[in-house]
Amino acid sequence: MLERRIAAVEYADRYCGAASEEQFGFKYNKAYRNYNSLGGDCANFASQVLHEGGKFRKTSGWSYDKGGATRSWVNAEGFKNYMINSGRASLIAYGNYEKVYKASYKLLPGDFIAYEKKGDINHISVVTGIDSKGYALVSCHNTDRNKVPWDLGWSNSSIKYWIVRVHY
C-alpha cells in the first residue's frame, strides 16, 4: 500500500507541469490530452496520478483512452463522486476551512482535496507532501502547482473543502 502512495506522488512530481522540477522538463505526460483549454485539467491529472502512479485500474465508469475520457476521469465533481461512491476513497471531512482544518492533518500523500464554490466542485488537488508543521502540501494542474499548502491560499469563507482519503 505504501509503495502505491509513493509511486503516486512520484508521478505527480514528474508531471505537474510548469511547477515541476527542471529535471522533468516542466511538462505534462504527453500520453494524455491536456484539458486546460476545455475547462481544466485538474481531474485528468488526479486520475493519471491514481492510475499511472497509484496503479488503480480503469473501470467502465472511470477511464481514458485516445478517443476521450469518462466524466469521472476529467471532471472535478465527477472524479470526487466516483472515487467516494466506488469505495476507492472515503470522506475524511467536509466544510469551510474552520470545519476541516484539524481533519486536514490526517491527510496522507496520495489523498486528494476537492474544492467547492457555490455548490460546484471546481478543482481537485493531490496531496504530495507534508510540511515541517504537518500541514498537507498539494500538486495540481490548471494553474500548475507543486507542493503548495492545501488551502491554495483561498481565504474566501464560502469555499468548501472535501478532504478525501484514497484507499490504495
Which strand order do you get reading across the main beta sheet? Answer: 3-8-4-5-6-7
Intertermini distance: 6 Å
Task: Based on Cα principal axes, name the global outline.
Answer: globular
Q: How many domain regions?
A: 1
Low-confidence stretches: none
Q: Given this structure, which CATH class is correct? A: Alpha Beta
Alpha-beta content class:
alpha+beta
Order of helices and strands: HHEEHHEHEEEEE
Please tally the helical runs, counting DSSP H or I stretches of 4 or more residues: 5
Tell me the helix content: 25-40%
Q: What is the number of E strands?
A: 8
Looking at this protein, list some descriptive labels:
endopeptidase fold (from Nostoc punctiforme), two-stranded antiparallel sheet, 8 strands, 6-stranded antiparallel sheet, 168 residues, alpha+beta
Structural commentary:
Strand 6 and strand 7 (145-149) form a beta hairpin. This protein has five helices and eight strands, in the order H-H-E-E-H-H-E-H-E-E-E-E-E. With 168 residues, it is of the alpha+beta class. The model has no long low-confidence stretch (mean pLDDT 94). Helix 1 (2-15) crosses helix 2 (42-53). It has helices spanning 2-15, 42-53, 71-74, 76-85, 97-100; strands at residues 64-65, 68-69, 89-95, 112-117, 120-130, 136-140, 145-149, 160-166. The chain starts with a helix and ends with a strand. It has a six-stranded antiparallel β-sheet with strand order 3-8-4-5-6-7. A two-stranded antiparallel sheet has the order 1-2. It has a single domain (2-166), classed as endopeptidase fold (from Nostoc punctiforme) (Alpha-Beta Complex), CATH 3.90.1720. 26% of the residues lie in helices and 27% in strands. 40% of the residues are buried.
